[in-house]
Amino acid sequence: MSRDDQELARLAALRSYRILDRPRPVVLDDLTRLAAGMFGTPISAVSLIDHDRQWFAGRVGIAEDQTPLDVSFCAHVVPARAPLIVPDATEDSRFAGYANVAGEPGIRFYAGAPVIDEDGHVLGAMCVVDTEPREVSDRQVDDLVTFARQAAGHLAAVRGRLRLAGLGDELARSAQREDDLVASITHELRTPVAIIQGYLEVLGDQEGLAEYRRLIDPIHRNGRRLVQMVDHLLAGTRPPEAPIPALSATVDLNTVASAALAACRPLIVTRGGPVDLAAYEPVPVSADLARLTHAVEQLLRNALFFTPPDRPIMIRVEAVPGPAIEVRDGGCGIPEDELPLVFDRFHRGRHAREQAVPGVGLGLTIARNIVRAHRGELTVRNTTDGVSARIALPGAR
Questions:
Q1: pLDDT in tens, 19-35
Q2: Could you read off the pLDDT of 53-99 as tens digits, one per residue?
Q3: What CA–CA distance (Å, rounded) separates 82 from 112?
Q4: pLDDT tens, position by position, 314-325
Q5: Sign of the dihedral through C-alpha 19, 255, 233, 248
Q6: Could you tell me which of 77, 221, 258, 268 has the fewest CB atoms within 10 Å of its CB?
Q7: For the CA atoms of the chain, what is the radius of gyration?
Q8: Residue (of 14, 35, 209, 220) closest to 120 by Cα position
Q9: pTM, whole model, 2 decimals?
Q10: Burial track 196-226 (b if 16+ CB lie within 10 A, e otherwise)
């Protein structure tokens, strides 16, 4: 097959996903947000390469839905079919003249891995981007490849549900309706808030407005809280007849633990005490990286809220007797009469009320639902010096 024929086949495959020019799947936004947090970059995207543009099927830190190919780093990933790492774009002759390098936003660092579907077509790239030069380790490149595989799996799941819905499958239609509703709500809320936050970031960088930073920063922070709260409510009030679709793609539990730590970094800094991670050799599981990380994040957030800074918090990854991840804290524990209620929706225990801990009582409900979707088990129990929250999972298939 000639190169032109291969490109035509690739574009036909891309369009079969029916993702272009539609509301972005929320799970891909979640994946990019997770990648940006884990790599510590302000920008991340799942970029699908069309014949004359790149369409962002998931994004964080980017206001546009699409950009032309003449400023696309991801377009270089497609023919190479391999990760592309650009430590400093201003020193790379391929990219130094790009408008988004020479001008705003001033891209310096780029790392992208190909999003390859089950038929071998490179649909685009999963990327992280920074405005400062930087290097990445081999482990980070491996993590980015894992994110790209997850993106490909989610795209396949979306296409599969669309096809089943077209054949009259009621469960697929129900799942697709829910996906469309959540995507619509997210688009109508997150998009304007993201634009507001983008302008706030621009204002915050203006030296002449430094005296107003004390006003700008709280607006920015509460905008993020607003979006997170709506996402939390949507996830926690999912009806029982609409089960969480669980992606089956191999990920390392150590990557899940590291991603959860990155997601909770602001809260860890605020608390002031350390969080220890007991890392081991790779522990492979079949999982949806973004959702399983979100479950661990809920457990870690609880530990951070209820544990004094001078008491330990440990995240432990286990391979024997089976894959598991445990968050163990040295906090105040859970009253015995409340242990049977911890997974109830909107339940807030005495300690949460007395200490004015933020939240609406959905964290453990969300975590358990996610773990069940992965055919696993979440247990929460008191220990001699705090609380243990443990997720046990089947091994990778």
A1: 999 878 878 988 999 99
A2: 999 999 988 888 999 999 999 999 999 999 999 999 999 999 999 99
A3: 9
A4: 999 998 889 999
A5: positive
A6: 221
A7: 22
A8: 14
A9: 0.78
A10: ebeebeebeeeeeeeeeeeebeeebeebeee
Rounded to an integer, what distance in angstroms lies between the CA atom of residue 252 and that of residue 287? Answer: 9
Q: How many CB atoms neighbour CB 46 within 10 A?
A: 31
Spatial separation of the C-alpha atoms in residues 71 and 364, rounded to whole Å: 43
Residue 245 has pLDDT above 70, yes or no: no
Burial 87-123 (b: 16+ CB within 10 A, else e): ebbeeeeebeebebbeeebebbbbbbbbbbbeeebbb
Mean pLDDT along residues 115-138: 95
Least confident range of 49-53, 123-127, 182-186, 257-261: 182-186
| Structure tokens given for 345 | 């929706």
Cβ(26)–Cβ(183) under 8 Å? yes
Greatest extent of the chain over all pairs of C-alpha atoms, in Å: 69
106: amino acid identity, one letter: G
388/175 Cα distance (integer angstroms): 33
